[in-house]
Every structure is written in structure tokens, then in C-alpha cells.
Amino acid sequence: MFTGIIEGLGTVKSLTRAAGGVRLRVEADFTIDKISMGDSIAVSGACLTVVDFQNNLFEADIAPETLSKTTLGQTKVGDRVNLELALRLSDRLGGHLVSGHVDGIGKVRAIRPLANATLFTFEMPDALSRYIIVKGSIAVDGISLTVNACERASFEVSIIPHTAEMTTMGFKKVGDPVNIETDMIGKYVERFTKHFDTRHKNEESSIDEIMLTKTGFM
Predict the structure, then answer these.
(1) N or C: which terminus of the chain has fewer CB atoms within 10 Å of its end residue's CB?
(2) Range of 184's domain?
(3) Catalytic residues
């Protein structure tokens, strides 16, 4: 579990392909001596497992599913990536709950300055639009952001100078791909309500005048 508060940037040092997957090697710009073998780390929003590390270098295996569903399948040696270590129960939740399970790949549609911020508009798959609401939370390349506006196939966020400086958002150009993870709460609510509707669609409601009278509501 993560918060979407990026701890620093890293540089892709190597990509070794094997058995349909990829062994990723990243050098972090900051000290990561607190990690251990098997720890989770979010790389541009995708949760990966550390399989080797030394100093500020770590390695992680990327499965075919992750390669096909995230921008890591397009990553090249020398690319810069956002890094966040897994959340500890004692940490502050400065962003929002982020699982590191990317829902889909979006694309930068437009970038325009506004006062001290920069407005980014992202295209997204239609299937994700129902999980995005104005003033809701969203993770873009692992960065916890607030939605300013949203339409069927796009949404807009404001990037302050600090976020641009500390994350890969400062390097983004129109047309660049990004990883998108929508707020998990909306997905769970949808799942629960659909499951309830499926199980009870042919059943009569147990809430009637007799029940309300017996329980003191009438």
C-alpha cells in the first residue's frame, strides 16, 4: 500500500528480458537503505517487489501482465521514474490510499500554465471514467492528485511547482503515456452494489410497513 507522495526519482539502468518478463534495475536519487528483499516499491505507480539491492540500486521483476497494462512495457534505459516505498502503519497518509495496481494507461492531452500552477489534461480509457469524480483522488504515475474536472474520456489536474520539481511530471510532454490508478473506494462500492443487485434482484424487500412498525419507526 502507498500514499501517492513520491519520495524521489530514479533512473532506469538496465532492462533484462527473460521468459516473457523483464528484470528492471533502477538507481534511486535518494537513500533507500531501509528496504529489504521482498519489499514493495512503487515505480511510476506500479507496485513491484524488490528482488536484489545494493546501496541505492535495486532490481525488480516485471511480469508480462504488468508490462502489458502499464507504461513499464515502454520503458527504456535512461528513463526517469517516480519512486515510493511502501506505506508503514505509523506513517502519515499525506496523499490517498494507493494500491500500486494500475488500472490503465492514459496520455497527456494538453499542458497549460495557470497562475503558479500548470494544468494537465489526460486522456484515459472510457472504462475508467465512471471511477473519476471532481475533487476526487487519482494517481498518475504514482502521484496522488486531485481531479479538477472530468469528462467521459479525460480529466484535468493542477500541478504545483513542488510536484513538478520532485516528480516526472516536470518532464512530461503532450502525447506522453502515463499510468492511471483510480480511487479504490469507488471500485469496491461498485463491486458490492452489483453483487447485492445480482443476488437480490428476484427477492422481495424485507423492509415493509409491518417491519417498520415492529422496529419502532412507525
Answers:
(1) C
(2) 104-200
(3) 2, 40, 47, 49, 63, 101, 146
